[in-house]
Structure formats: C-alpha cells, structure tokens
Amino acid sequence: MRTILPSGKQPWSRWHHRLHQLLLDDPSLLPQGSGLLIAISGGQDSLALTRLLLDLREQHHWQLQLWHGNHNWRQDAAANAQHLQQVAAQWGLPLTVDCAEPAPKSEAAARQWRYERLQRQAETSSCPLVLTGHTATDRAETLLFNLIRGADLTGLSSLRQTRPLGAGITVVRPLLAFSRADTQACCEQLGLLVWHDITNADRQFSRNRLRLDVIPELEALNPGATQHLARAAQLLEELEGQHSALEALALEAIRSEPGRADLNRQRWQEQPIKLQKRLLHRWVQQTSQQQLSAALTTEIWRQLQKPGRRPPIALSHGWQLQAEACMLKLIPPAASD
Fold first, then answer.
1. Full-model pTM
2. Could you tell me the residue range of the domain that residue 133 belongs to?
3. Quick one: pLDDT band at residue 203, thresholds 50, 70, 90?
4. 324 occurs within a structural domain
C-alpha cells in the first residue's frame, strides 16, 4: 500500500485509506470545501485526526483551523500549548488557544467551557463543522458511564457521529470507527509526537477510573468487550434516531392546530402513557430549549392527569406550563410576568 498522497510528501497509510473510504461512503459527514475547526489537545486521537485530514485536504478542498483549550489544571499546560503552536506552524495551520479563567471545578464544567469556546471560535472563523477526536473506545466508555448513571435511550446514545452545537454549527466525530489502539498505531506509523496528559492517569476523575479499572476488567472477561460496547452505542444511536423521527410525527399530530406550539390535551392523553411522557419531554425541549429530567417529566405528567384547568406548573428559566381544559400551553418568561 504505497499510494502517494496528492502532496507527494509521504505514502498513504492504511489509516488514510480507512478515513478516506469512510468519507466516500458518507460524503455528507465532511462535505467538500467545508471549513473545519479541529479541537486538538496534542493527544494521540486529535493528533491523528488532524494529520489525516491535513493529508486528505487536497482531495476534499477543506479549510482547516485548529483550536486548543487550556483548562489551567496542569503545570505543563503552557508547555502543551506551546508544543501545539509549533506543530501548527510546522503544518501550516492556524491555531487558536483559549485559557480558562478561573479553572473549571469539574469534568462537566470543563466540557461545557470547551464547547462554549468552540462554538464561539467556529462562529468567529466561519467554520460550520467542529471536529473532535473521539473514537470507538470513547463511545464505549461513554455508554458505560451513562448506563451506571441511569440515563435513558437518548443519554445512552449521546456520543453520536454528529450533533448540533449552535445555529448553523455541527459537531462531527469522524474517528468513531477507529479505536484508541488504532490512533496510537497511526501516530507511531506517521511519526507524530504525542503529548501525554498526566491527568488521564488521575483516578479522582470518574471517567479515568472507568478507563483504567473497569474497561480492562471487561476486556479480561471477554476480549473485544470495548468494540462490542461501541457497536451497541451505535445501534442505540440508530434506534434513538428512529424513535425521534416517529415522535416528531406524533407530536405534530397532537398539536391544537398545524404550526402552533400548543397541544390538544385530549389527543395527547389518548396516547400510551410512555409515549405521553416522551412527547411531553420533546415538546418542552423543542419549545423552551430546556431538558426535563425523567423524574420531573413524570411529576409533570402526574399533575396533568387531573382534569380541568390547573395552576401553572413552573419550569426552568421562567417558563410555565399551563393546562387548560382542552389544551396544553407553554408560556415564555415575558408572557408569564
């Protein structure tokens, strides 16, 4: 396998072939000529992704930009960023480095900060696609992590190939068909200098304990367990997508009038109980842009089982749910003041 890259700089590896074939099979994933903003940490996954996309750029005509987030968690964070600036300069790619002030206090806060900054940078640089280096291994870990937290179908399929980030911006994970062992082998074959994040070995982070302790035990019980978990997550994503499409049709069918946000209460209550709850959850999310927990959805559903007009049910951010005799309404903050 010695096909020469269009740049003539080096032969194609099997990793180039795999990603190139994946993009040929699904051209909508990274459309030709798109502006791509790549989140790069210096670790093996994001480094392999960046190098492969750079080598395939001439065939797909992308505009590539890099973004790095410094959480201010590590003593070597500044050196990490400097290393990436050298890599970006060597590869001729623009790099933006954002530094968190103050440092996030949790994994969840760090993740929220990263995606907020990525969205802002994507808007500034006119990049409609934000790319991360998540792999099938990450997908397996996320499935397990969300499973033990009691997540529903949407949560179990949360690490998806694509997801919306903001208006006109989509997060894309092109390496979900690759394992972490694949990206390590890719970096070794292409001679890429990986920056090792020492916090990945810190067991105070729950995801690290899952990665370092639980996954190896599962692999010992059944070799290939990680691959099977990643496949299960993919199947759950497909199933959730089918459910979501059917729910969207069902939600339109119970609106008070076509195009209106209000629901016909009788038609809603004619649905099976489980579907009533899912439609309630989807309606609130779609109309008010807020997620209801499973427990809160069930509590609101219980209150709506009482006939007749009910007192408004308070939701987050000032929204209210008003139950009329024949109709369900969501009242925005300005209208409820």
1. 0.81
2. 14-232
3. confident
4. yes
DSSP letter assigned to residue 59: H
Per the rule left: phi > 0, alpha: psi between -120 and 50, beta: everything else, 55 is: alpha
Domain count, the chain: 2
- Give CA–CA dist 80/74, Å, rounded: 9
Q: What was the pLDDT predicted at 9?
A: 58
Distance spanning both ends of the chain, measured CA to CA: 68
CA-based nearest residue to 118, from 138, 97, 94: 97
* Class of residue 131 by CB neighbours under 10 A (exposed 0-12, middle 13-18, buried 19+): buried
2 confidence band (pLDDT: 50, 70, 90): very low
Inter-axis angle of helices 44-60 and 77-91, to 10 degrees?
20
Paired residues of 131 in beta bridges: 38, 172
Order of strands, edge to edge, in the sheet holding 313-314?
263-264, 327-331, 320-323, 313-314
Q: What is the CATH number of the domain that holds 204?
A: 3.40.50.620
Which has more confidence, 158 or 324?
A: 324
CATH number reported for the structural domain that contains residue 317 in this entry: 3.30.465.60
- What stretches of 254-306 show up as alpha helix (H) in DSSP? 265-269, 273-288, 294-304
